[in-house]
Amino acid sequence: ANVAHLTAILVLGLTLPTTLGQDSDTLQLPLAVRLGGSLGLTGADSAEAGAALKGIRLLSEKIGEPDVAKTFRFPVSLDVSRFEDDGSDPVKTLDILKGLAQDRKVDFFFGPSSTSRSSARAAAAAAQVAEDFGALALLPGPALRDVVAHGYRSAVFVGAPAEAYAAEALEMVHLLGAKSVGAIWEATAFYRDVCEGAMEHARRLGMQVVEGAQHSDRLFQQIRRGELPAA
């Protein structure tokens, strides 16, 4: 969590002058930054979105702490009051983001990540709206291959692309002596990208890939409910 906070703060420091269309020497100080966006606080993505909002609020508090504040060349505060609930609906996400952008209610968007079908579409929508309206979109966590590869100039990705998400874990178990790996995934683009990328990386490490297959959502739902052994 601390790494994520520091990364986000670093991105803020690097992008604020560009976001506001001003040179850092001519900014009005103290600088109040408006961070907003669309989060699935209800619906399928509610758990992840709720955790993200909690982290965002913590970030706004951290920026005001002396040890963090002294890393900026000028006083900065972060207004995080402009987040709206999209009900985990990508169509509503698009409407919310367009409204925020058209009315210039935010300086840049935050989120969402790409870990589910709905949030992946929402992340792409956020990047596209930022591109269309000359804003910036800060997209946290692992991102779908297609979203990263699109080449959005206004999107800043915090975290690895999905296909590189498991790379460090694989390298660690390889160093500990693991010789083979297997992967099964749910029928979503995000988990497919994670597992396919993991298998490719395992082969580069010289590991044997013994299994790689997509399974039904029902199987994973049963595992989560404890009805089948996780192995």
From TrEMBL:
The keyword Signal applies. Residues 1-21 form the signal peptide. Keywords: Signal. Residues 83-216 form the Leucine-binding protein domain. The keyword Cytoplasm does not apply. This is Leucine-binding protein domain-containing protein. It comes from Zooxanthella nutricula.
